[in-house]
Amino acid sequence: MTRGQARRILAPLLALILAAVMAVWIVPPLIQRLKSAFPPAFEHSPTGFAAATIARGAVLFPVQCARCHGATGRGDGPDAKALPVPPADLTAQHLWNHSDRELFGWLSQGIERPQGTVVMPGFADVLPESDLWALIDFLRAHNAGAVFGATGQWPHALLAPDFAATCAGGGRITLSDLKDKAALIVALRSDETDLPPLPEALAARLVVIALARDRQIEETGGLCVADDPAAWTAYAVIAGVDGESLGGMQFLADPQGWLRAVWKSGEPLAWSDPGALAARIEAFRGDRVSAEAGLPLQR
Predict the structure, then answer these.
(1) What is the set of domains in the chain, with CATH numbers?
(2) Distance from CA of residue 153 to its chain's centroid?
(3) Is the pLDDT of residue 174 over 90?
(4) Which residue, 68, 128, 130, 228, shows the most beta carbons closer than 10 Å to its own?
(5) 242 backbone dihedrals φ, ψ, rounded to 5°
(6) What is the mean pLDDT of residues 201-214?
(7) With 0-12 CB in 10 A as exposed, 13-18 as middle and 19+ as buried, what is 94?
(8) Distance CA 225, CA 281 (A)
(9) Are the C-beta atoms of residues 72 and 146 closer than 8 Å to each other?
């Protein structure tokens, strides 16, 4: 066996051993220190998983994190091999095992080995708290999108990224305002300027909100239109697609804001079969997302 062959065989094994050492000797004591350093108010992000903060995190991640964690967050950045412990794969399931408080603590204070070796630097002196929360929102959204892009399912109960929209007549809403209606978020294709009217049978239980990229469209009929361009970015992230590929996708959120269904580009509009969509919405009432299933996200 040549040295090159030996290195190729041993490298993955050594990475697993280092990850196990980190899990046993570094993470548990660090979590205890973080719980003491940050009060319970830090347990959940204060952003409400907003589209604007996810989009802000998408801007910050390539600048602040990608050199170690890689452009796609898989721990394979250009500086990764020089680090004493391999960077975490931020697209893996383990991300959902950590509270927002833990993630905030690691981002702000960094991670050290028990003997003091820095595993990851902290950013408390570099970024304001709002940017640290934005990175946390982005990490969760990106993780969900990476899994959804590969499997067609999210790995965890996921909130619909929140944003404001203007409706016909000038009224403004956010997803968190919709306590008694479901929301269907439709990313318009580049050749679409409006949508067919919503059947009256659905109007009492559903709000349709259009996302348009880099252009203005009118609020007509029962249609609402997202005010913030960040909404387009955020929904592309959770869908695991680039901005060009989001057009035509539809996202159904229940009245509590949890995402329940997705229609991919090229599929018929969700209300092309009003009866089936109404039945799906009605089923939400008896199938609520539990507090445990929704953690660590909350709104």
Answers:
(1) 8-151 (1.10.760.10), 164-286 (3.40.30.10)
(2) 13
(3) yes
(4) 68
(5) -85, 170
(6) 91
(7) middle
(8) 21
(9) yes
